[in-house]
Design brief:
The protein is α/β, with parallel strands linked by helices. The protein has helices at about 5-10, 10-25, 30-45, 105-120, 140-145, 150-155, 205-225, 265-285, 305-315, 335-340, 380-400; strands at about 50, 60-65, 65-75, 125-135, 160-165, 175, 180, 185-190, 195, 230-240, 245-250, 250-260, 285-295, 300, 320-325, 345-350. It folds into 2 domains: about 5-180 and about 300-400, Zn peptidases (Aminopeptidase, 3-Layer(aba) Sandwich); about 185-295, Alpha-Beta Plaits. It is elongated. It holds the Pfam family M20_dimer. Keywords: Hydrolase, Manganese, Metal-binding.
Length: about 400
């Protein structure tokens, strides 16, 4: 493993920053303290710092020894999750009901370490924009930064992202061309029937049975309408109806999620769900209100940038530790919005199995969105080295074209 020696020497210092962020988690668009920490660090290293994009976002601009018009972006997310931490070690969350359970504190720390090194050396031609993004966890912070002018105010030809991945060994990376993470979408079906005594169902219109019929019919969209080679998930996660055992209710509500790797599959599923809901409601004599909310698109890596990233990773950890046969995840990531606007690549960095956790960790597994999770600080110099090498080599290649 070939790590940047200066970054290794800073590990204790950057780890302290990471653990401070972990102890003070902030939710989407509330990352004021986190943004203060990031901005103060960037400014202390002489980095041009901009605030306010996406409400609480921070962008640092690092110019190399010459400005040749070439620039790339490196992105980390900053927000925490609205959940209770189960760990009791000293850097556990001090904010009840808020936790860095997805490693965004570690992502921020890795990018800070890289920014510090790049700013000290500036041994490259071109510009590196380090993007500290708010509100990844379901609130579209990437899209908000773009709407606020991210790519207009900070022109760049490519953008890159990274996320820790529990279960993958420390020292390994996962990367794929094409879909890496699924789209995230929600739906709701409101069914209006006519209430009646449960012993006299013929006097009413049962929205519960209509919901059951629709739930079964929706699954045929996946098994009969969709190309079997185009993966998708349609999960009904809630059905709410009724308040008594002997009453057929007036209404029922059904909710759930749809995940896909392609826009084509998503278009088909949304269209067919709407048709099935309306026609199914008519067949069951219920009024139907169907809504479909597209939240995050699929995270789709661009082939050229993915191949480039893989070669950089191989030079750091060896070919055997760059896993290019991994299975993509139906989990979602709003870095997808950036990849819709600019070519780029999103990689996973192995977080290990949880053995790194300090005494006092929760009894649960060290998995994302689990109250016993903690980021592996051993990754800080490795992730930062990847950012540094990627930036320097990409800018060198861009200048040579």
């Amino acid at each position: 493993m070939k790590l940047v020696e200066s970054i290794v020497a800073w590990q204790e210092e950057i780890t302290a920053i990471r653990r401070d962020l972990h102890a003070h988690p902030e939710l989407a668009y509330e990352e004021v303290r986190t943004a203060d920490v990031v901005a103060e660090q960037l400014q202390s290293w002489g980095i041009e710092t901009h605030r306010g994009l996406g409400v609480t976002g921070v962008v640092g601009t690092i110019h190399g020894k010459s400005r040749n018009g070439h620039a790339l972006g490196l992105r980390a997310d900053m927000d925490a999750l609205p959940m209770q931490e189960l760990n009791t070690f000293p850097h556990a969350s001090s904010n009840p009901g808020k936790m860095h359970a997805c490693g965004h504190d570690g992502h921020t720390a890795m990018l800070l370490a890289a920014a510090r090194y790049l700013a000290q050396r500036r041994d490259f031609d071109g510009t590196v924009h380090v993007i500290f993004q708010p509100a990844e966890e379901g609130f579209s912070g990437a899209r908000k930064m773009i709407e606020d002018g991210l790519f207009r105010l900070f022109p760049m030809q490519a953008v890159f992202g990274m996320h820790n991945w529990p279960g993958m060994p420390v020292g390994s990376f996962g990367v794929l061309p094409g879909p890496m993470m699924g789209s995230s979408n929600t739906f709701q079906v409101e069914l209006e029937g006519k209430g009646a005594h449960a012993a006299m169902p013929h006097l009413g219109t049962d929205p519960v049975m209509a919901a059951v019929q629709l739930a079964q019919s929706f699954q045929t969209i996946i098994t009969r309408d969709l190309d079997p080679l185009d993966p998708a998930v349609l999960s009904i996660t809630q059905i709410h109806a009724g308040s008594a055992d002997n009453v057929i209710p007036n209404s029922a509500t059904m909710r759930g999620t749809v995940r896909t790797f392609s826009d084509q599959a998503l278009d088909l599923i949304e269209q067919r769900m709407s048709e099935v809901a309306q026609l199914g409601g008519q067949a069951m004599n219920c009024k139907i209100a169907f809504t479909f909310n597209r939240k995050y698109p699929a995270t789709v890596n661009h082939p050229e940038e993915t191949a480039f990233s893989a070669e950089v990773l191989k030079s750091i950890v060896g070919e055997q530790n760059v896993l290019q046969d991994i299975r993509p995840s139906m989990g979602s990531e709003d870095f997808a919005f950036m990849l819709k606007e600019k070519p780029g690549c999103y990689v996973w960095i192995g977080n290990g199995s949880g053995d790194h956790r300090d005494a006092g960790h929760g009894l649960g597994p060290c998995m994302l969105h689990n109250g016993s999770y903690d980021f592996n600080d051993e990754l800080i110099p490795l992730g930062a080295t990847y950012w540094v090498e990627l930036a320097r080599r990409w800018l060198a290649a861009a200048a040579a074209r």
